[in-house]
């Protein structure tokens, strides 16, 4: 590139124009003076060429033409002045030569100007482009720098021209610059990204396209480069790349096997999770499913997938998917279609989610539900749940069955339905129990149901409220159909009563002799007192005082006999159990007095140690007395064969704890041997030759029916000590003796 081009790069019109014209005028006048007024035999006028060239340097073709005309006229004028009428052949030749020189110089200058104008236009066009266009020589010095380069790098053409481009812009590239230069010279062109620093210090990334300009002989002369600022694109590309990388990482991290398929179902992308299947997914397309889905699930999966592909609706399938170890895990295979503007499915995006744990939990739940339903059916126990917030009641299938309803959406479980089936006498307590359920930590209620066909059912309802057991249930109850056990219990109670009666009769039988004796005594006393009364009356002067004393004794003895007979009859009477509030001490003392003749017969001294305060229990006095009599009889019998020892029974009553009373019966026999202790209360266990072995067993049944306990205690003395504990507030047990 020559200097003119460099200059033209920035200046279209030369500012030194007027000076050139002045200078050209001086040269023209000087040549004219020498030509016209000296007699030199040389073609001085040839020097007008200089004038034409000077004017041409102004760049104006009009000026060139004007100057040409002027200097041609000056040449002719100079010729005419210097030669008058003497026109020598040589002079004419010099004149013609000068004119020819002037003319040809003028033509060349005009052509040159026209070329230059065209070049300038091209440069202007180069300046019009937004691309930075620059030319450097083989040393890397800038020789051309268009407007685009000025705005890209911030340096003006004046500042850039002559500078080494790489130093000026601190060029950096992926390859060493020398290597790029060598490649460029070798191949003639190069393109690539460069990083350069602008004048304001900002680094820009440019796409540089470089070509070598060679001369006619092919020698490299200069390097032409076009640079585009791609900083923004680069940043955006980096950003997009980073976003894509992040998206890829996110997709790879998603706890699921992500995939996408073409509109016709060819799997075209899978995320990294698919590696866990141990299957080479590459290029499998639609056959991928054959490789990963369990053979047993493949048919259904393919069907679902085909349906989705045909209908364009979402895929929703549950299949076992292969794992690296060859095993399978349950996965939820789901995909959604992506449609284009014409609603045609362009892509499918899917994800296989591992639902193995959920599936197992569901299976376990189904199993345990089946267990529960089965267990509820077998145990005839239904569940009732209440959602406190909405007051919604939930019944299990068995609860429906117990209440005698068919589950149906039209039927809303609730208290009304329960009351409809409840025995009229029990409705009130059911209402109260349900009303208080939320406030009471535990509801325990037995009541009766009457089915539409008149069938009577006994149910035991236990419910628990308090801290929520689950998110929506605050109250859970168990409803047990205890009809059959109630009937069994009733039968058992009846048998127990029969048995108790039988044992009482046996006991009475055992005591018959002493009791007969006990009755004959007061009867004999009645007779004696009657005789005495008669005698007192038979006196000449009847002693009325003695008579009335004797009659008094008769009445007392008769009462005594009557009492004994009453007690025996009470013991012998067969009657249902009846609870009443009775004084424990009185009850015990009565039993002792009934036993008195038998005790006397065995030479036993019985001592009752009552508590300081009266103690009442709710009990069937005949049954409790049967227990006491039984224990006293056992004690008397245990001591019967021990002649050397004192025969003593101590009965103590105390209430050491609130709500219960202890009744101890201790004898001075040899106690219960260790090996016998365990079986003591077992029915038909006896160590006696004539024993039935039912006494203690009946005692335990009676005491437990009263809500108490009977145990054999360790006694400090050698004898046996039985402890009976009874609840003091036995009123509540009234219905369950
Ligand atoms: P039975 O009196 O018909 O044997 P029980 O059930 O009343 O039936 O008593 C079972 C057994 O318990 C008796 O055979 C006896 O061995 C033992 N036993 C009961 N009371 C006493 C006692 N006070 N001292 C020692 N052994 C006793």
UniProtKB/TrEMBL annotation:
UniProtKB keywords: Kinase, Membrane, Phosphoprotein, Transferase, Transmembrane, Transmembrane helix
Presence of keyword Phosphoprotein: yes
InterPro entries (alphabetical): HATPase_C_sf, HATPase_dom, His_kinase_dom, HisK_dim/P_dom, HisK_dim/P_sf, PAC, PAS, PAS-assoc_C
Segments traversing the membrane: 20-50, 62-81, 87-110
Pfam family, one: HATPase_c
Occurrences of domain Histidine kinase (ranges): 514-730
Catalysis: reaction(s): ATP + protein L-histidine = ADP + protein N-phospho-L-histidine
EC code: 2.7.13.3
Superkingdom of origin organism: Bacteria
Stretches assigned to the PAS domain: 115-188
Any GO molecular function: kinase activity
The PAC domain, residue ranges: 190-242, 315-367
UniProt xrefs under PROSITE patterns: HIS_KIN (PS50109), PAC (PS50113), PAS (PS50112)
Protein name in the entry: histidine kinase
């Amino acid at each position: 590139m020559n200097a003119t081009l460099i200059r033209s790069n920035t200046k279209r019109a030369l500012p030194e124009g007027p000076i050139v014209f002045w200078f050209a005028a001086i040269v023209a006048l000087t040549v004219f003076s020498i030509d016209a007024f000296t007699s030199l035999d040389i073609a001085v006028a040839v020097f007008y060429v200089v004038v034409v060239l000077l004017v041409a340097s102004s760049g104006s073709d009009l000026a060139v033409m004007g100057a040409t005309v002027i200097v041609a006229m000056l040449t002719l004028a100079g010729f005419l002045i210097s030669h008058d009428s003497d026109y020598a052949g040589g002079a004419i030749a010099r004149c013609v030569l000068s004119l020819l020189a002037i003319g040809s110089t003028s033509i060349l200058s005009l052509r040159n100007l026209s070329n230059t104008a065209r070049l300038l236009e091209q440069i202007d066009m180069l300046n019009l482009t937004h691309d930075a266009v620059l030319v450097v020589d083989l040393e890397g010095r800038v020789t051309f720098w268009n407007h685009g380069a000025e705005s890209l790098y911030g340096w003006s053409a004046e500042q850039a021209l002559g500078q080494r481009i790489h130093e000026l812009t601190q060029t950096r590239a992926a390859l060493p610059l020398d290597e790029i230069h060598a490649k460029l010279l070798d191949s003639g062109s190069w393109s690539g990204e460069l990083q350069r620093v602008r004048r304001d210090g900002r680094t820009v990334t440019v796409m540089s396209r470089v070509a070598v300009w060679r001369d006619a002989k092919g020698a490299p002369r200069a390097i032409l480069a076009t640079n585009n600022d791609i900083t923004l694109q680069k940043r955006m590309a980096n950003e997009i790349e980073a976003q894509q990388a992040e998206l890829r990482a996110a997709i790879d991290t998603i706890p699921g096997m992500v995939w996408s398929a073409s509109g016709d179902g060819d799997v075209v992308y899978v995320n990294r999770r698919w590696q866990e299947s141990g299957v080479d997914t590459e290029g499998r397309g639609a056959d991928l499913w054959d490789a990963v889905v369990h053979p047993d699930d493949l048919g259904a999966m393919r069907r679902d997938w085909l349906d989705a592909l045909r209908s364009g609706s979402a895929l929703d399938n549950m299949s076992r998917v292969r794992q690296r170890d060859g095993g399978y895990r349950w996965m939820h295979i789901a995909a959604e279609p992506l449609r284009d503007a014409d609603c045609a499915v362009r892509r499918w995006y899917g994800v296989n989610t591992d639902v193995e744990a959920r599936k197992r939990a569901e299976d376990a739940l189904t199993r345990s539900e089946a267990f529960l339903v089965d267990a509820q059916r077998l145990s005839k126990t239904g569940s009732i749940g209440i959602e406190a917030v909405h007051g919604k009641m939930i019944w299990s299938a068995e609860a429906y069955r117990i209440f005698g309803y068919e589950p149906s959406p039209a039927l809303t479980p609730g208290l009304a339905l329960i009351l409809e089936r409840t025995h009229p006498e029990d409705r009130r307590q059911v209402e109260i129990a349900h009303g208080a359920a939320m406030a009471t930590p535990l509801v325990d209620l037995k009541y009766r149901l009457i089915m539409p066909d008149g069938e009577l059912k006994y149910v035991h309802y236990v419910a628990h409220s308090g801290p929520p057991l689950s998110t929506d249930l605050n109250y859970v109850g168990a409803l047990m159909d205890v009809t059959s056990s109630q009937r069994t219990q009733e039968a058992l109670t009846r048998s127990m009563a029969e048995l108790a009666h039988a044992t009482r009769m046996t006991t009475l039988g055992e005591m018959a002799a002493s009791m007969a004796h006990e009755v004959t005594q007061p009867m004999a006393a009645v007779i004696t007192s009657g005789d005495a009364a008669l005698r007192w009356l038979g006196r000449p002067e009847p002693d009325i005082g003695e008579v009335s004393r004797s009659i008094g004794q008769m009445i007392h003895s008769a009462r005594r006999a009557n009492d004994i007979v009453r007690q025996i009859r009470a013991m012998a009477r067969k009657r249902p159990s009846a609870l009443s509030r009775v004084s424990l001490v009185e009850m015990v003392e009565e039993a002792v007095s009934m036993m008195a003749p038998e005790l006397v017969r065995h030479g036993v001294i019985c001592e009752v140690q009552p508590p300081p305060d009266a103690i009442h229990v709710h009990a069937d006095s005949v049954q409790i007395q049967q227990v006491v009599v039984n224990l006293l009889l056992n004690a008397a019998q245990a001591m019967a064969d021990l002649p050397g020892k004192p025969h003593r029974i101590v009965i103590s009553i105390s209430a050491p704890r609130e709500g219960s009373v202890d009744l101890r019966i201790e004898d001075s026999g040899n106690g219960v041997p260790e090996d016998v202790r365990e079986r003591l209360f077992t029915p038909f266990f006896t160590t006696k030759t004539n024993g039935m072995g039912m006494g203690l067993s009946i005692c335990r049944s009676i005491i437990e029916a009263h809500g108490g306990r009977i145990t054999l205690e360790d006694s400090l003395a050698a004898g046996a000590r039985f402890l009976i504990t009874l609840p003091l507030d036995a009123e509540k047990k009234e219905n369950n003796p």
